[in-house]
């Protein structure tokens, strides 16, 4: 390539990235307009000003999408004149990780954050035509206010378009732990969930400003919350799956502060989904539902603060600049503090109309909400306690998995017990005996499965049998609830009616069953896994839990941007070959960092999990072997939960908001229905 061509390429690259920078600043300007004008218009009743909200939301999204596209172009084409590309990319990096490198850093991930924020705002503008004009204007105005705060944060402290005066020939590469397909897709899904909860927050604040919270409001807010919960479920499952196979320690959850930062909003979002049902059906729990909407997004902001403030060290964190942390803390204080102040001022507008007895579906949903909210606060206390102890008492403490498992598990047991019963209870008033009677077969099946698990297990632990009992109870209870909605009559007729049940009913039962499968998977993998750590000699088999493992060979290979040590290992049982696995240990020369690539033979009942380590002085290789029962039930259950959410979201009752139903135009002299 000649000098002229190189000069032209550099000019094009400069133009694209400068246009991206300009688009980002324009997006900030549009967000300010969207924040102010519709809000004033809604207050004054000026329809022209309120109408600015929708096109401004779409335009803001277009500008941010252009900025994000320009940054991705710079990563794909290795434009090292951008400081961000130089610090997080390399010419030898595979294309997938060049693309994912766009959000594999603090500045780029914040740009993805506001892109998704504006996407939800644009979606509300496009699909919110059925909303009352004042509410729609206020929702989009609050959404824009969040955008203004974070766009200002990016422009002032985290600009992704900063340039280097003398561009180097190559970059410093992306963190090797992030060069993985699971981490390429995990952040976008997680952000779609995190940031999607901003819509519930915007609806809550808009309703507080308007002083009107009713069943129609609950029907409008539920689809947005449900969509965010679905994405958050998938994002958490992807992160857990990545930790399982990539880090090489064989775990799926470490109760890392950053893992907790995504789990807490998930718990609050689940509570919000159930609480909004009560507002929609019975116009009760209004204040509690509004508070949950504020807390769900508030804990999303807390998660953003944890990841980007530098107060903790983790492979998940993006930034270690306390100045940025202070900025995010200020955003958190303004929005959550302001919303809670407004919440207190509008308490009189949230009086409940519906009354219900102690034994009713409303009471069951209240119990569900209390368990989910308290469990989220338990996780929060465990997460921040080491920080608080060091800040206020000067003591360094570590709160690890034993605390969380002991403190969090009882709440999940209670939740699993009440869910099938609560789903069967009628609204307003119920008789517990009448609701529980159809669940007796499910209870018997659950007890039998628990006893069977206790009988056949080799390790006498209560965790596995209890987990399988509760998991079976949830799955069988969900199926019983679904079948009970077919009414009475011949079995064939009732089975035929199943296909015509609303998708929301199918979605609820599917999600509850998915939770049961996940619980059983977690209990199985924690109670019955077998771990073996040893020095393995090439050609000498060893036995682990009835499996014969043989290290046949160890080779070295050159990857695109790493050097890999690969083990060739055969696993047999009763003389029959079960799997040939190739665990790896990679070294990335640019960063001088090793990573472990576990080799896993997945199965319905168990995973065979092998990790190869370093060569030993006396010969042989360090090898770690796991037998992990029911591992895939964990992620399969999470995907089934997400599928349940998708089924519910596809129900026309949730896709079409209450206000979207327009009165039909009647002929002259005939009143409209």
Written account of the structure:
The strands form two sheets. Strands 2, 3, 4, 5, 6 and 7 form a six-stranded antiparallel sheet that branches. Strands 1-10-9-8 form a four-stranded antiparallel sheet, covered by helices on one side. It has helices spanning 3-44, 47-50, 53-76, 83-88, 95-100, 106-127, 133-157, 181-210, 215-246, 257-282, 286-308, 322-345, 361-393, 401-424, 432-436, 440-456, 463-484, 491-498, 503-528, 631-649, 652-655; strands at 530-536, 542-544, 547-558, 563-573, 576-581, 584-588, 593-597, 599-601, 606-615, 621-629. It is built from 21 helices and ten strands. It has four domains: 17-179, no CATH class; 183-424, no CATH class; 425-522, no CATH class; 530-631. The longest helix is centred in the first third of the chain and has 42 residues, at 3-44. It is an alpha+beta fold and 673 residues long.
Q: Give a short account of the largest sheet.
A: 6 strands, antiparallel
Q: Please identify the structural class as seen in this structure.
A: alpha+beta
User: What portion of the residues fall into strands of 2 or more residues?
Assistant: 5-15%
Radius of gyration: 27 Å
Could you say which overall geometry the principal axes of the C-alpha atoms support?
globular
N→C terminal distance: 73 Å
Query: How many beta-strand elements?
Result: 10
| Mean pLDDT level | 85
- Helix content range: 55-70%
Unreliably modeled segments: 656-673
| Number of DSSP helical runs | 21
Number of domains: 4
């Amino acid at each position: 390539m000649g000098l002229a061509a190189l000069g032209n390429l550099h000019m094009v690259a400069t133009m694209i990235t400068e246009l991206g920078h300009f688009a980002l600043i324009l997006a900030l300007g549009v967000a300010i307009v969207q924040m102010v004008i519709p809000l004033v218009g809604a207050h004054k009743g000026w329809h022209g000003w309120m109408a600015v909200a929708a096109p401004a939301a779409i335009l803001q999204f277009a500008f941010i999408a252009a900025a994000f596209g320009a940054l991705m172009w710079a990563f794909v084409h290795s434009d090292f004149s951008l400081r961000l590309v130089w610090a997080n990319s390399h010419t030898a990096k595979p294309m997938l990780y060049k693309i994912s490198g766009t959000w594999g850093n603090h500045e780029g991930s914040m740009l993805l954050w506001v892109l998704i924020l504006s996407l939800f705002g644009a979606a509300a503008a496009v699909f919110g035509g059925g909303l009352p004009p004042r509410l729609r204007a206020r929702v989009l105005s609050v959404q824009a206010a969040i955008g203004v705060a974070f766009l200002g944060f990016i422009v002032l402290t985290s600009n992704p378009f900063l340039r280097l005066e003398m561009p180097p020939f190559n970059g410093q590469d992306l963190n090797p732990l992030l060069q993985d397909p699971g981490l390429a897709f995990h952040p976008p899904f997680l952000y779609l969930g995190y940031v999607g909860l901003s819509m519930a927050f915007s609806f809550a604040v808009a309703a507080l400003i308007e002083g009107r919270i009713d069943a129609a409001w609950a029907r409008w807010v539920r689809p947005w919350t449900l969509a965010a919960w679905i994405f958050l479920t998938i994002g958490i499952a992807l992160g857990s799956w990545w930790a399982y196979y990539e880090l090489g320690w064989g775990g799926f959850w470490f109760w890392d502060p950053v893992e907790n930062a995504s789990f807490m909003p998930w718990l609050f979002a689940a509570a919000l989904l159930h609480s909004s049902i009560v507002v929609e059906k019975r116009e009760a729990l209004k204040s509690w539902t509004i508070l949950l909407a504020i807390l769900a997004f508030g804990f999303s902001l807390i998660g953003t603060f944890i990841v980007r403030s530098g107060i903790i060290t983790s492979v998940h964190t993006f930034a270690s600049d306390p100045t940025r942390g202070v900025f995010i803390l200020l955003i958190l204080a303004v929005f959550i503090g302001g919303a809670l102040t407004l919440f207190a001022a509008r308490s009189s507008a949230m009086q409940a109309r519906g009354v219900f007895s102690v034994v009713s579906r409303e009471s069951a949903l209240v119990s569900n909400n209390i368990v989910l909210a308290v469990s989220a606060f338990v996780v929060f206390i465990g997460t921040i306690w080491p920080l608080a102890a060091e800040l206020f008492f000067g003591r360094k403490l570590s709160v690890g998995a034993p605390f969380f498992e002991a403190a969090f598990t009882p709440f999940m047991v209670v939740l699993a017990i009440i869910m099938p019963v609560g789903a069967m209870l009628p609204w307003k008033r119920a008789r517990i005996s009448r609701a529980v009677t159809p669940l007796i077969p499910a209870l018997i099946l659950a007890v039998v499965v628990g006893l069977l698990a206790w009988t056949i297990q080799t390790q006498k632990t209560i965790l596995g049998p209890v987990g399988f009992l509760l998991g079976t109870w949830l799955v069988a209870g969900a199926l019983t609830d679904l079948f009970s909605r077919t009414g009475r009559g011949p079995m064939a007729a009732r089975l035929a009616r199943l296909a015509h049940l609303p998708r929301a009913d199918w979605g609820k039962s599917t999600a509850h069953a998915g939770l049961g499968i996940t619980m059983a998977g977690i209990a199985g993998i924690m109670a019955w896994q077998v771990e073996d750590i040893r020095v393995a000699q090439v050609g000498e088999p060893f036995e682990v839990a009835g499996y014969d493992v043989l290290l046949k060979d160890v080779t070295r290979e050159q990857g695109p941007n790493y050097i890999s040590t690969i083990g060739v290992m055969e696993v047999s049982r009763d003389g029959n070959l079960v799997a040939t696995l190739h665990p790896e240990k990679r070294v990335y020369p640019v960063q001088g960092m090793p990573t472990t690539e576990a080799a896993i033979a997945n199965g319905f009942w168990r995973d065979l999990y092998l990790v190869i380590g370093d060569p030993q002085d006396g010969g042989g290789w360090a090898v770690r072997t796991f037998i992990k029962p029911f591992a895939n039930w964990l992620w399969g259950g999470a995907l089934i939960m997400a599928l349940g959410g998708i089924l519910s979201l596809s129900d026309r009752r949730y896709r079409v908001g209450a206000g979207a139903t327009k009165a039909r135009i009647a002929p002259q002299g005939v009143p409209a229905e």
